[in-house]
Each structure stands twice: as structure tokens, then as C-alpha cells.
């Protein structure tokens, strides 16, 4: 089944208003932190990988894992099936490791030892790390280029047995857990970008929730790319033991630069019996300018393994950034009665391209999945939903509900839906709904007549369109996500 | 309050209003009746600044201003309200949130302080009560899944909250049951005041049993062809529009 809606609204009218010039709000996270950093020269070969591994003082098995992944990657091809126009990437022109100097030798032991410039950076981004200004109830791991600069509330979390640390630290402190789970959900050979990540990954977060523990606060990682010509290859691993619960959030930003920068991450989630993981993303990587210059290539593999009975993994994403997004957070529903959810808002403006969606793989009996995708295309952007629902032979009574809605604003953008289903079991019940609409002139006029300005009206209508997804986000992030959409919608009219 | 002078206007590319005159003073209620396609909605759309209606000649003065020079949202903030013949649905947008955004945009235009959510909630709850409407109207998304009658009631509720100076009701009584008709009429009557005016477009005399108009006009073929008092509506009800041509 394939359905391709090439902007049916193209011929119809634009919102009927006089062109207004408006001072465009800038991408406010687009600043550069002026900090001395240690960056390895561009280029990628086995020595690069040895160097990264040595920098992190890694055990031999991990170096072997990386080298093995690298050799696999060398024999793989960049995927071309997505509805994306990806300019050739010169992997030898990228630097694979950059760390602020302060972190060169030893990572700071506590946040007090962190370079004030870094702390200032996170202040400016609205994620203060100092004790007195921290967001209440949210623990943060702050990743700056290739390293974690600090993690808040560590001690408080340790008291209940929750491990929340940078990936590099976890390799040192909990090697047995890393060894057990690294690559268990996304094998190095999974795909081209996952293999690259497995070879060169630098930092990310590790979360471990012990049996029966409900994590007492939201955990979050803030990813920041700062250095020029570097890629960010983070690795995140979350393990939720039987009966545990965790809500995890990630946010990401980068400076405005004319060059494209590569971000290729891997996220793996594991949920045991009755465990629940709620994973939310507010993705705001620099999208490039109005002419399509610059911006992040966001090529990410995210997958959750519902290993235990009755386990649940829920992905919620609000994607407004990046020049190109290639991302399909997925769930493997292995445990009987397990469930997977995917809630997504993807907004593209100007020349942005997004090919995003999910895979729900039903292996266990009575497994259930829900997919709600909202694509919003503005300007000259292209926005595709790509989804796969697969039901294995033994997955009796699997159920899926998929709804993908596209909203078009303007006449030069495109929305596309590629929903695939493969079912090997007669008892499966799969439902799919799809709509494509544009902000109707009648809706806009109705708002105007009530005194609402055109800009506010569009934001109101878009917000309404995304409602089902926003309500899945933790409160503070729903507010942030909404504000982000408003900024990204700038220039949508006139 | 409002002076419509020799207005000629197109809807789409057809001339619909063909030299229309109408003067409305503060506090007055004018009923406009007339056959289908006469141009009644076109007149409402022209006043509210809705697209596809274009002035060819003539003028409209509203509270000393050239109304047609203002943007639609500016007209709203200046007190012009149009209850639509076919209200639009806005999925996912809570009715109360919509109205608060509208009210605060209008207040901002007028240089007034925004109303905070607590104040607003109190005010809105009171209005709902006064208007004899159900609370769930507030929580539901704007007009989504509303019955025809509920949509019309919602228009009247919005009018009550926004407290316009000139309210134009375009067939707000069409498709209403008897109780709903009374609710709508009450909504108008409660708002009646010496400095607020109404233009009520209707096909039925029965609404005018509940809302006593000061004037009744017949709009036919783009012009006001006859004006009178309430008695005119009764005559029309009995005899239709045909006799006007004789
Ligand atoms: N956008 C438009 N494009 C073309 N013609 C239009 C447009 N809007 C209105 N018209 C035409 O103008 C004429 C007057 O329409 P209008 O809606 O004003 O009538 P009305 O008096 O309100 O009728 P009714 O009692 O049926 O509501 C009709 O013939 C209608 O088809
Ligand atoms: Mg009409």
C-alpha cells in the first residue's frame, strides 16, 4: 500500500492577505560558545576509532566492538529509499571527536569544576545546571559536542538505585550492563548510520531503572553541537527492569552555520515485564536558512524493545529542526500483551526535508500499537510519513491503529505518506486513517472576524491540529514545543 | 453608528449589491429580510471584511471611520461582530481558549490590559449561565461535532463574551428548535443597550416575536426596496415578496 499526496492544495489560494514584512525571529539557539576545545583532525579510519576509544579509556571489548562496526560500515551503502534529497556527504571531511579543553584530561568530578562558559551556554539555552537554578523535578545530562559536561541530581537518583550518567561514565562504572545491552536492540549492522554510530559514537546518556522503581523525576539529556565541522554521534541506552517506570526527554540545538553538520545517533530502549518507558524528544537542530543553506543532517536510529510481558514503550517527538531528518523511532513488541506508541509532530519550513515515521513489529500475542503522526509542511519543504506495521505469524490478536494527518500551509510544499503493512497472522486487526488538509480560508477568516490576527490564527489552528500529540508531552515541554512551532511557522504567511 | 451609502459591490465577479443605503443609529435593531440570493450575506461579509466581496462604489462609515479601509481583525476590535450563517469548525482548538485569544487580541488592539485566565473563566461561566447554555460548550473544540443549532448558539455565546458595538446576525435563527430560538433571542435582548446596535438577517417573522426590531427592511436584488416597522414583517410573512414588485 502506498499513497502519495503531492500537494493537492497547490492550485488553491494562499491565505488571502497582503504580504506583510515582518522582522523574522531568529533561531535563538544559533549562537556559538567561544571556548577552547580539543578537536581531532577530520578523517575516518581505524586509527580515528582507536583514538576516540583511547580518549575515553575504554576496555578492549568496546574497541573491538567499534572496529567490527567500522568494518561493517565500510561494506555498506548509504540508504536511498527515503523521499529525501541528500547531497553527498564527505565522511573524511568530518571531525569525529571534539571536547571542550576543560574536559580534556579528566572529566570534571562535579558541576563546580565545569568551565563557567559551558554553564553559561546551558543557561542561555534555558537548561540551567547549577544547583540553585536547576529545573525542579528534572535531572539533566548535558552533552556538549562529543562529551558530557555534567549530570544533575545524580546523588538523589542513586538513593533510589536509578543510574543516570553519561554513556562514557557508565562504560567505566557499569561495564557489565553496557556489555549486556549495547547493540542488543539496534545491532551495529542494522543500517548504514547505525553502523557509523557504533564505530565512532562519543557520548550520550545511560539510564538504568531497577526492578519496581518508579523514577522520581523526569530524566533528560540536552544535546548541543558547538564545534565547527564536527559530527555528533551520541548513544543513548535506557534499561527499565520489571515493573519500573521512567519518563525521559531529549532536547537538541546547534549554532547557525553555512555548512551542514552530521548528527547520527542511536537510541536503544529495553523494557522488561510490566515496565514502562516514555521517551519524548523536542528536536530543534539548526534547520538552515531560508535559502536552504546550512543546517543539521539528522540521521537517527531509535528503537525500543518491549522484551517483557505487558511492557510499554511510548515515543513522542516534536521535530521542528534539522535540514534533513531521517528518523523512525520503532518498537519491537516481543513480550505478550506489550504495547508501543508513537506520537509525532514534524514541521518543515523553507527548504527542510523530513522523512520520519515508525515501525511497529508485533511478535508477541495480544500486542498493541498506536501511531499518531501530524506532518505540517510550510514554504518549499517536503514532509513524508513512512510507517511499517508488521505482524509475525505467532502474534495472535495483534492490534494497530495508525492515523497520519498532513497539514499544508502554502503552495510549494509537499506531504507524502508511505504506510506499509505486513501481516502473517489472520487475527491481526490493523486500522489506518490518513488525511491531508490545508488551513482553510474559512477557518482563517472565522478567526480574523473574532479579532485574532492572521499569525495568531495560524498558530492556533496548527496547535489544534497537533493537540493529540502535545497532550502526550510532559507539561513544561508541551509549552516549549508549542513556542517552538510558533517560531518555526514564522514566514508561513505573506 | 453605521452609514451605508449607495454601495455597489461584487461577490466573486458578479454584481450583487446594487446601490444599497442603510443607516443604523446607536441602540437600534434593524431586521433585514429578503429572498434567497438577494445579497443579505454579501452585505454582512462586506461589513466584516470577508474576502470575495469587493466594493465598486459607495461608502461605509462606522463610528466616524471609513470601515472598508480596516482589516477584518481591526473591524472586530472596533466592535463589529458577524454571527456567520455557516460557522466554521476548528479541530483541536478549545472553544474557551479560542475566545480568550480573540478577546485579548481585541483588548490589545484597543490598548487594554489582557484578561487573565481566572478572570476570564469567571466572566465566561457567568455568561453561560445568563444565556441558559450548557457548560460543556466551553470545553469542546470550536464548533466541531456541534449540531446546527449548537453552532448558532455558540455564535450567540461568542457575541455575549466579545460584547460588540455592532452585531450582524446572519440567519442565526435558521434551523433552531423553539427553545433554542428563545435562547438566541434572549442572548440578543440581554445585550441590547442604548449604544449597541444589531442587524438581524432572517427569513422568519417568528424571531421578531422575541426580538422587537425598530425597523424592518426588505433587501431584494441588491437594494433595500422597502422599509417599515414590525408590521412589515407580518405582511411579508402573509404575502411573500411578490407583491413588492407590483
Ligand atoms: N464568492 C462568491 N462568488 C460568486 N458568487 C457569489 C459569491 N458569494 C455570493 N455569491 C452570489 O451572490 C448572490 C447573493 O448571495 P448571498 O449569500 O448574499 O445571498 P443571501 O441573500 O444571503 O441568500 P440566502 O437567503 O439564501 O442566504 C448569490 O447569487 C450567490 O451565489
Ligand atoms: Mg445568506
Distance between the termini of chain B: 34 Å
Instruction: Tell me, rounded to a whole number, the average pLDDT of chain A.
Output: 85
Would you tell me the structural class of the helices and strands of chain A? alpha/beta
Distance between the termini of chain A: 37 Å
Number of beta strands of chain B: 10
Could you walk me through the main structural features you see in this protein, from its secondary elements to its overall organization?
The complex is a heterodimer of chains A (494) and B (246). Helices cover 21% and strands 34% of the residues of chain A. By secondary structure, chain A is α/β, with parallel strands linked by helices. In chain A, the strands form three sheets. In chain A, strands 5, 6, 8, 10, 11, 13, 15, 16, 18, 20 and 22 form an eleven-stranded mixed sheet that branches. Chain B is of the alpha/beta class. Chain B has helices at 40-48, 72-77, 95-109, 117-130, 136-139, 148-162, 178-191, 205-210, 230-239; strands spanning 2-11, 14-24, 29-33, 53-62, 65-66, 80-83, 166-170, 197-201, 215-220, 223-228. In chain B, the strands form two sheets. Chain B has a six-stranded mixed sheet with strand order 6-7-8-3-9-10, with helices on both faces. A four-stranded antiparallel sheet of chain B has the order 2-1-4-5. In chain B, helix 6 (148-162) runs parallel beside helix 7 (178-191). The mean pLDDT of chain B is 93. Chain A binds chain B through residues 16, 440-443, 445-454, 456, 460-461, 463-468, and chain B through 48-51, 71-73, 76-77, 81-82, 84, 87-93, 98-99, 101-103, 105-106, 109, 141, 158, 162. The complex binds adenosine-5'-triphosphate and magnesium ion (MG). Magnesium ion is lined by residues 40-41, 85, 170-171 of chain B.
Task: Indicate the topology.
The complex is a heterodimer of chains A (494) and B (246).
Chain A: E1 37-39, H1 46-55, H2 60-74, E2 98-100, H3 116-124, E3 138-144, E4 147-151, H4 154-159, E5 163-166, H5 167-173, H6 175-181, H7 192-200, E6 205-209, E7 218-224, E8 235-240, E9 245-253, E10 260-263, E11 266-271, E12 276-283, E13 295-306, E14 312-319, E15 324-327, E16 330-333, E17 339-348, E18 353-362, E19 368-378, E20 382-391, E21 399-409, E22 414-423, E23 429-438, H8 441-449, H9 454-470, H10 475-488
Parallel strand pairs in A: 3-7, 6-8, 7-9, 8-11, 9-12, 10-13, 11-13, 12-14, 13-15, 13-16, 14-17, 15-18, 16-18, 17-19, 18-20, 19-21, 20-22, 21-23
Antiparallel strand pairs in A: 1-2, 3-4, 5-6
Helix pairs in contact in A: 1-2, 2-7, 5-6, 8-9, 9-10
Chain B: E1 2-11, E2 14-24, E3 29-33, H1 40-48, E4 53-62, E5 65-66, H2 72-77, E6 80-83, H3 95-109, H4 117-130, H5 136-139, H6 148-162, E7 166-170, H7 178-191, E8 197-201, H8 205-210, E9 215-220, E10 223-228, H9 230-239
Parallel strand pairs in B: 3-8, 3-9, 6-7, 7-8
Antiparallel strand pairs in B: 1-2, 1-4, 4-5, 9-10
Helix pairs in contact in B: 6-7
The structure holds adenosine-5'-triphosphate (ATP) and magnesium ion (MG).
Amino acid at each position: 500500500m502506498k499513497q502519495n499526496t503531492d500537494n493537492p492544495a497547490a492550485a488553491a489560494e494562499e491565505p488571502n492577505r497582503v504580504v506583510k514584512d515582518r522582522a523574522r525571529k531568529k533561531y535563538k539557539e544559533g549562537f556559538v560558545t567561544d571556548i577552547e576545545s580539543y578537536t581531532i583532525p577530520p578523517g575516518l579510519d581505524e586509527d580515528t576509532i582507536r583514538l576516540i576509544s583511547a580518549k575515553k579509556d575504554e576496555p578492549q571489548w568496546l574497541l573491538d566492538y567499534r572496529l567490527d562496526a567500522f568494518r561493517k560500515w565500510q561494506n555498506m551503502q548509504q540508504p536511498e529509499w527515503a523521499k529525501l534529497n541528500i547531497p553527498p556527504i564527505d565522511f573524511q571531511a568530518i571531525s569525529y571527536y571534539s571536547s571542550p579543553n576543560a574536559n580534556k584530561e579528566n572529566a570534571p568530578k562535579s558541576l563546580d569544576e565545569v568551565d563557567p562558559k559551558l554553564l553559561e551556554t546551558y543557561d542561555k539555552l534555558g537548561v540551567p545546571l547549577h544547583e540553585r537554578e536547576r529545573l525542579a523535578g528534572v535531572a539533566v545530562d548535558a552533552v556538549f559536542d562529543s562529551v558530557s559536561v555534567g549530570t544533575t541530581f545524580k546523588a538523589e537518583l542513586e538513593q533510589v538505585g536509578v543510574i543516570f550518567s553519561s554513556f562514557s561514565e557508565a562504560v567505566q562504572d557499569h561495564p557489565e550492563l553496557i556489555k549486556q545491552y549495547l547493540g542488543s536492540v539496534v545491532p551495529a549492522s542494522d543500517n548504514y548510520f547505525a553502523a557509523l554510530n557504533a564505530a565512532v559514537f562519543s557520548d550520550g546518556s545511560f539510564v538504568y531503572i531497577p526492578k519496581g522503581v518508579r523514577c522520581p523525576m523526569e530524566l533528560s539529556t540536552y544535546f548541543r553541537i558547538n564545534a565547527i565541522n564536527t559530527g555528533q554521534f551520541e548513544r543513548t541506552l535506557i534499561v527499565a527492569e520489571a515493573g519500573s517506570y521512567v519518563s525521559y526527554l531529549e532536547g537538541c540545538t546547534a549554532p547557525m552555520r553555512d555548512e551542514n553538520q552530521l548528527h547520527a545517533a542511536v537510541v536503544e530502549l529495553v523494557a522488561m515485564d510490566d515496565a514502562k518507558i516514555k521517551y519524548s524528544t523536542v528536536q530543534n537542530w539548526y534547520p538552515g536558512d531560508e535559502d536552504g543553506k546550512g543546517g543539521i543532517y539528522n540521521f537517527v536510529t531509535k528503537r525500543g524493545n518491549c522484551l517483557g510481558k505487558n511492557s510499554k514503550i511510548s515515543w513522542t517527538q516534536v521535530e521542528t529542526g534539522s535540514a534533513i531528518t531521517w528518523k523512525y523511532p520503532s518498537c519491537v513488541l516481543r513480550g505478550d500483551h506489550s504495547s508501543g506508541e508513537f506520537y509525532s509532530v514534524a514541521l518543515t519550513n523553507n527548504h527542510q526535508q523530513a522523512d520520519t515515521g515508525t515501525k511497529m513489529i508485533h511478535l508477541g500475542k495480544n500486542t498493541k500499537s498506536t501511531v499518531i503522526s501530524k506532518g505540517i509542511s510550510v514554504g518549499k519543504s517536503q514532509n513524508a510519513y513512512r510507517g511499517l506495521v508488521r505482524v509475525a505469524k505467532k502474534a495472535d490478536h495483534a492490534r494497530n491503529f495508525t492515523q497520519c494527518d498532513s497539514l499544508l500551509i502554502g503552495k510549494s510544499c509537499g506531504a507524502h505518506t508511505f504506510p506499509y503493512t505486513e501481516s502473517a497472522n489472520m487475527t491481526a486487526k490493523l486500522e489506518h486513517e490518513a488525511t491531508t488538509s490545508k488551513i482553510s480560508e474559512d477557518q482563517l477568516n472565522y478567526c480574523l472576524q473574532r479579532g485574532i490576527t492572521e499569525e495568531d490564527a495560524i498558530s492556533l489552528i496548527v496547535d489544534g491540529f497537533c493537540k493529540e500529540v502535545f497532550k502526550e508531552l510532559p507539561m513544561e515541554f508541551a509549552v516549549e514545543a508549542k513556542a517552538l512551532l510558533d517560531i518555526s511557522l514564522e514566514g508561513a504567511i505573506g | 453608528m453605521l452609514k451605508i451609502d449607495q454601495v455597489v459591490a461584487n461577490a466573486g465577479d458578479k454584481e450583487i449589491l446594487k446601490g444599497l443605503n442603510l443607516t443604523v443609529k446607536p441602540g437600534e435593531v434593524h431586521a433585514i429580510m429578503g429572498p434567497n440570493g438577494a445579497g443579505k450575506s454579501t452585505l454582512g461579509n462586506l461589513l466584516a471584511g470577508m474576502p470575495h466581496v469587493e466594493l465598486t462604489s459607495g461608502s461605509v462609515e462606522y463610528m466616524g471611520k471609513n470601515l472598508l479601509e480596516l482589516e477584518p481583525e481591526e473591524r472586530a476590535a472596533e466592535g463589529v461582530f458577524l454571527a456567520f450563517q455557516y460557522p466554521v469548525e476548528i479541530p483541536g482548538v478549545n472553544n474557551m481558549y479560542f475566545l480568550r485569544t480573540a478577546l485579548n487580541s481585541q483588548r490589545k488592539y484597543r490598548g487594554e490590559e489582557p484578561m487573565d485566565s481566572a478572570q476570564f473563566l469567571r466572566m465566561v461561566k457567568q455568561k453561560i449561565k445568563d444565556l441558559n447554555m450548557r457548560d460543556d460548550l466551553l470545553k469542546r473544540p470550536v464548533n466541531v461535532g456541534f449540531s446546527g443549532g449548537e453552532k448558532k448558539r455558540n455564535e450567540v455565546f461568542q457575541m455575549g463574551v466579545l460584547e460588540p458595538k455592532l452585531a450582524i446576525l446572519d440567519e442565526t435563527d435558521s434551523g433552531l428548535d423553539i427553545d433554542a430560538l428563545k435562547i438566541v433571542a434572549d442572548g440578543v435582548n440581554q445585550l441590547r443597550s442604548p449604544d449597541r446596535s444589531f442587524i438581524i438577517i432572517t427569513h422568519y417573522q417568528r424571531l421578531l416575536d422575541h426580538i422587537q426590531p425598530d425597523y424592518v427592511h426588505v433587501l431584494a436584488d441588491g437594494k433595500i426596496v422597502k422599509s417599515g416597522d414590525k408590521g412589515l414583517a407580518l405582511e411579508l410573512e402573509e404575502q411573500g415578496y411578490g407583491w413588492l414588485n407590483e
